[in-house]
Amino acid sequence: MKCPKCQSENPDNKTFCGDCGTSLTPIEEAKSSITKTLITPKDSLKEGSAVGGRYTIIEELGRGGMGVVYKAKDTKLKRTVALKFLPSELTHIPEVKERFMREAQAAAALDHPNICTVYEFDEVDGVNFISMAYIEGQSIRKKIEAGPLGLEEAVRIAEQVAEGLQAAHQKGIVHRDIKSANIMVTERGQAKIMDFGLARTAEKTLLTKEGTTMGTVAYMSPEQTRGEEVDQRTDIWSFGVVLHEMLTGELPFKGEHEQAVVYSIRKDKPRPITESNAEIPPSIEQVVDKALEKEADKRYQRVDELLDDLKSISAGIVPEEIKDRVRKAKLRRRKRTILFTGAAGLVVAVVVIALNLFMGGRAEAIESIAVLPLENLTGDTEKEFFVDVATEELIGQLGQISGLRRVISRTTVMQYKETDKTLSEIARELNVDAVVEGSVQQAGDRVRIQVRLIDALPEEQNLWGQTYERAMSDVIVMYGEMARNIADQIQVKLTADETARFVGVRQVNPEAYDALLMGMQKGSQLTPQAFDIALEYYNLALEKDPNYAEAHLAVAEVWLFRNQLGYTVPREGGPKAKAAAMKALELDSTLAGGHSLLAWINFLYEWDWAEAEAEWKRAFELNPNHGDSVYAQFLWVMKRPEEAMAQMERALQLDPLNEVVHLHHAFLLESAGRDDEAILQVRKLLRTSPQHPMLHWDLSVLLMRKAMYEESLAEMKANYSSIGDREVVEALTQGYAQSGYRGAMRSAADLQAARARKTYVNSFNVALLYAIAGENDQAFEWLEKSLEERSPHMPYVGAYIELAPLRSDPRFQDLLHKMNLPVDEKE
């Protein structure tokens, strides 16, 4: 069987490519449950079969991702053992087999009462197997089938598992596949961790960034799902999942398919275990929550810390840090309203809460506001995206009000979703006069949203609050009503046009709206496959409602991002994006986002500068709080630097924590020759996004301008490493060894030029590499290709510092004239 990625030949029974790890199974066949594992079954051995001259098979115990397990008799030592026959994927490649044996032997050296003892490793007829202690008992997963474990039993087992992990971690061994099925509990209540030494090899050879996963997905840490290097903190996360499962009887992260589970692991906060079982102490809940922190640096750093907390709580002593986390959790929950008790509990009447209305009046007018992420009180973590969209919609509605000087953008406020900061701290950081917070509940086809307006400085002061309830078809109408009421409360008057837009909001088809949200959630993953699925959802939305402007706009966004990310040839994707955007605006000309998107299309693909600016101006009229950093770049390209910097400053004010905005700002700084400021900006961004390829590219070019060639080369390698292009990294290394810095860039460019004869390659990037290498003729050849392809990078051609050495060449001026771009008199 030929690998679709690297073209290597593989045996027909292989599930994954032995060279690159890519799945060899068609997508439809690969769909499975959330406990999907790689299964390579061994032909069943019959009772009485002899193995290795010393083992006699008694019975088959089970099959799973790491092979087939049999109960057997060790005739030499007269003891009952478990024999695990390993999948060929783990051992058919010599170097993999060697590493597997080495690491498995290290695991066998573990001697701890809470780790299953491994006796030996052997090979029979080319098949590898492990002989280990046979454990009489049940797995935790089996025990949970009867319901959640009692608190005392769960904590007792948890302490034993933690002690086993502690012993392994102290010897530098990380399990990487901790799950309830991998932990046995003997008849005497002793916990035993199984399969040490197997997960390491499986992950290293089969877990890829393209989405091929091995192991039980529901127990994977966020960093594991991203294919990143993992350490003992990933065991702590998986252990937290098991602890949650023991206490509640259910997994914290769920979904209908594997991708949904991965999304939940990365984005969702699990339902608090105290809501599932009120008898669980808040202190235990906080142990679970800390083990399940999304960011590894916020998690328990060592299992010793987790074990100390469990033992202290068992002894009736709650550690101070846990007490502090409990207090903060109570503070957050104090804001919640009572959950729905069912559809019968819904009331149609609007409930007005009027909390300390204005406390006699506010001394200063409210001109800036931040809508904090609304809280999900639906009782369903899979509704988290719906709640996030509700936050975004309310921000968008408030942004249309010109009387509000500044409404903080969604990207920034979403970074406060799980914060422990007070409202006053947030208001100071964002420099706003007031904040809006609230919660979302849903039952059946009705939605209830509670919002509160709070003057957060110098201290929190409730100004107003109200609860809204509508049918799903009126959900957009409800967001507009909230925005109007907030404007009334802060005494901001709407213009006639603004009032007309709010009144003119139409109902939505609930099925179409749901399909739109599903598509948005999928499309946010930004992979080719995710975009395909998103388009299917958008088309479904348009089947339900052909006049759904927002769905047409979503289609336009898919094609725009496909072009931007290099998944589609620009001259093909650009027209599709424009057609969908035009259709959306034909149906609803008041969509600020539609005009902004059309401005991007006219700028990046149509190269119609006048129309692009006209669309941006219309977008800003409709939403004065839309700070578009791409418009700042447009102004720079149009040789209007002062306006560009002013627009960028506005974007930074409205979206101060948006990484993309800061990246665009760095681009302007480097284009302006302010290299030191740009370097500081890019290094700061890399601290939070160390794998962002564009950041490494920008830093490489900036360091090149300072003649720091080795550092520049390292950053260029990091750029290609972050996207998994090892061939280019090797080309850079060899080119540098042979011909220095320019030789490295030429070698990388030559490699990609060769690729272009077989597949689509970003021509503009090839041109940049040749320009850096000093190969001007080749650079112009590839710039001409970019011109022909209508590359979205071409509008920036006059601003890229990589192309500065070409600017005095008449061919460069010819390019600018062909695109009708302004030319400096100096040039």
Structure commentary:
With 827 residues, the chain is an alpha+beta fold. Among the domains are: 197 residues, Orthogonal Bundle (Transferase(Phosphotransferase), domain 1), CATH 1.10.510.10; 165 residues, TolB, N-terminal domain (Rossmann fold, 3-Layer(aba) Sandwich). It contains 34 helices and 16 strands. The strands form 3 sheets. Strands 10, 11, 12, 13, 14, 15 and 16 form a 7-stranded mixed β-sheet that branches. A hairpin with a 4-residue loop joins strand 8 and strand 9. Helix 5 runs antiparallel to helix 12 and helix 11 runs antiparallel to helix 12. The longest helix is centred in the C-terminal third of the chain and has 30 residues.
Q: What are its keywords?
A:
Rossmann fold; 7-stranded mixed beta sheet; 16 strands; 6-stranded antiparallel beta sheet; 827 residues; Transferase(Phosphotransferase), domain 1; 50% helix
The CATH superfamily of the domain at 137-333 bears the name: Transferase(Phosphotransferase) domain 1
* End-to-end C-alpha gap: 57 Å
Based on secondary structure, the structural category is: alpha+beta
Radius of gyration: 30 Å
At the third CATH level, what is the topology name of the domain at 137-333?
Transferase(Phosphotransferase), domain 1
Quaternary organisation:
single chain
Number of helices: 34
Q: How much of the polypeptide forms β-strand, as a percent range?
A: 5-15%
Largest sheet: number of strands, sense, barrel closure: 7 strands, mixed
The CATH class of the domain at 137-333: Mainly Alpha
- Which CATH architecture of the domain at 137-333? Orthogonal Bundle
